[in-house]
Amino acid sequence: MNLTTAHHDGPVDQQSSEKLARRGLELRRMSNEMKEFEPWFEAVSRGFLDAEPTDVQRDATHARFDYRRLIGVIDSTGVMPEIPVGTFASWISAVSLPGEHVVTTCAISDVTVAPTHRRRGIARAMMEGELRRAAAVGIPMATLTVTESNIYGRYGFAPAATAGRWIIDAKRASWIGPDYPGRLDFISRAAWRELAPEIFERVRPGRPGEAKMPGGYWDRFAGTRPDVEKPGKRRAVQYTDTEGVVRGVALYAITENKEDFTKSHLEILSLISDDDAAHGALWRFFIDHDLIGEIRMDEGGIHDPVLWMISDQKAAKVTLFDHHYLRILDLPVVLASRTYATPGRFLLDISDPLDITGGRWLIDIDASGSAQISPAPNAVPDGVTEARMGIGELGAIMAGQVSAATLAAAGRIETTAAVALARAFSWHEQARLSFVY
Ligand SMILES: CC(C)(COP(=O)(O)OP(=O)(O)OC[C@H]1O[C@@H](n2cnc3c(N)ncnc32)[C@H](O)[C@@H]1OP(=O)(O)O)[C@@H](O)C(=O)NCCC(=O)NCCS
Questions:
Q1: C-beta of 120 in contact with ligand 1 (< 6 A)
Q2: Atom of ligand 1 nearest to the CA of 119
Q3: Do the beta carbons of residue 220 and residue 319 sit within 8 Å?
Q4: How many CB atoms lie within 10 A of CB 257?
Q5: What pLDDT, on the 0 to 100 scale, is given for residue 117?
Q6: What are the start and end residues of each CATH 3.40.630.30 domain in the chain?
Q7: What is the C-alpha separation between 336 and 371, in angstroms, rounded?
Q8: Between 20 and 30 A from 258 (CA), which of 128, 220, 294, 348?
Q9: Ligand 1 mutation pick, 71, 119, 155, 323, max ligand atoms within 8 A of CB
Q10: How far apart are the C-alpha atoms of 171 and 190, rounded to whole Å?
Q11: CATH of the domain spanning 164-321, picked from 3.40.630.30, 3.30.930.10, 2.60.120.260, 1.20.1260.110
């Protein structure tokens, strides 16, 4: 059985199943057939405070959901027992780590528990069980994005790619960046839907923290699925270089400012490019756009070069937020799956609240940045420094964005070699994830 099937069709975790059964609840893998999907989806919508899904929303999601493993918790004593009181979804994905390494991951979403059944350990049972299952089938890492930040640390997750919410005062910003020799053209949303994944796939491996994006997400961005409201508000542009190669595409929507039509709001929904010129040219298109007062972009990079392409840096406000959470499930595999910035020898003593992975490991990084991982001896060898931390802290520094020195200063890593550790785990490419799970 391949990994995707083993994950998608595998049984639920015995331990969590028994734990919930003792409370009269059933942990169940739900099929993707409409009769099970529909009540599951209804529960997810309710859990995220949405209205009952319309037929169009249900069908559009159902048509694009086969790749997900769906979990439900059933309370057969309830008034509507077919609607699960707990939901959870996961799928096989991949996350990039420094040095163009791509690690197979278990991406997690749709975690909800009915408000009538909250704080009885249902979410914990689903999460623990599904993480154990993912580790058991050989997936080395789990990932998610969060609505509330204080839920997932207890399971060994931590934010590894911070995102920036950009708000730019367009009237103040004024472009001082280069002139670009290529050309800009409007394209249809359908053309954007074709081009964007191609360009994204070219850059994804080199961008730590970035994940494979499921097809339905591209359709949602483009408005090429029937459940997207006002799809026509989304406009798409492309940048073509002087050789005729499309190097970047962007998608945006404008909301009229009724109080002052010259200061309407422009939201950048997606900006994807495979070179600096396309990135700059698309930003320039937005900064120079007539009749715009405010430009907004969520899930932006935190070190976007656009800051150095506008005359007034105070015109840009960047709010940082924890975005892509990683959870290491197979420590030696993940440690060996990135390039390190500097050589060094460290003994990592890693604790795991769920005892899935962890332990004491020796990491030996050579001059090329490749690491050999081996079980550590009891005594710390000469020339090696020890660092103690939780599995979450290790996940946080894996993409090279969060500094080990910062976590040491915060008391989250114990070591006498914080600077050496920080240098080794740092990376020059900014980590980011350009969508929400
Ligand atoms: C968040 C949610 C899934 C929690 O479900 P739950 O079944 O009540 O959670 P559990 O009873 O299993 O609690 C597990 C642990 O998480 C803690 N916890 C749960 N929800 C929390 C919250 N919102 N904030 C802080 N801690 C929370 C509990 O205190 C408990 O801690 P402990 O086991 O370490 O003592 C549920 O409240 C929910 O559906 N919320 C709305 C949707 C949502 O936000 N989903 C998360 C998407 S990222």
A1: yes
A2: 11
A3: no
A4: 15
A5: 98
A6: 3-139, 164-321
A7: 6
A8: 220
A9: 119
A10: 31
A11: 3.40.630.30
Q: Which whole-number Å values give the CA distances from 83 to 73, 77, 249, in the listed order?
A: 9, 11, 41
Segment 44-65 mean pLDDT: 97
Output the CA 111–ligand 1 centroid distance in Å. 9
- Model confidence band, residue 1 (pLDDT cutoffs 50, 70, 90): confident
Residue 48 CA, closest ligand 1 atom number:
42
Nearest Cα to Cα of residue 282 among 295, 294, 293: 295
Could you tell me if 178 and 276 are in contact, meaning their C-beta atoms sit under 8 angstroms apart?
no
The pLDDT tens digits for 142-190 are 999 999 999 999 999 999 999 999 999 999 999 999 999 999 999 999 9
266: buried, middle or exposed (CB in 10 Å: 19+, 13-18, 0-12)? buried
What's the pTM value of the predicted model, to 2 decimals? 0.97
Q: Which CATH architecture has domain 3-139?
A: 3-Layer(aba) Sandwich (3.40)
Say yes or no: CB of residue 172 within 6 Å of ligand 1: no
Q: What is the pLDDT of residues 80-127, one digit of tens each?
A: 999 999 999 999 999 999 999 999 999 999 999 999 999 999 999 999
Q: What is the share, in percent, of the chain residues with pLDDT greater than 90?
A: 100
CA distances from 344 to 115, 341, 347, 367 (A): 49, 10, 10, 9
Average pLDDT over residues 370-384: 95
CATH architecture label of 330-425:
2-Layer Sandwich (3.30)
